[in-house]
Amino acid sequence: MPRFLTLADVAEQLQINSPQAYALVRSGELKAIQVGGRGQWRVEETMLEQYIQERYAEASRMIEETKAKSSH
């Protein structure tokens, strides 16, 4: 796999649409760079993996919080 992914590649891997991938980049949730004369966005594969791991960690925290609240 190439080092850098297009937003279309990111969208495909996350199974979301391109505007959603763009929104993740614009919000800063997913780190990306702009390259070329037209400023095309590229996401380094390691940044995508980091984003995915952060989402897993966030999901785990939410599940634990829900369990803690329901046990009271």
UniProtKB/TrEMBL annotation:
Residues 4-55 form the Helix-turn-helix domain. It holds the Pfam family HTH_17. InterPro entries: HTH_17, SinI_DNA-bd. It comes from the Bacteria. GO terms for molecular function: DNA binding. This is DNA binding domain-containing protein, excisionase family.
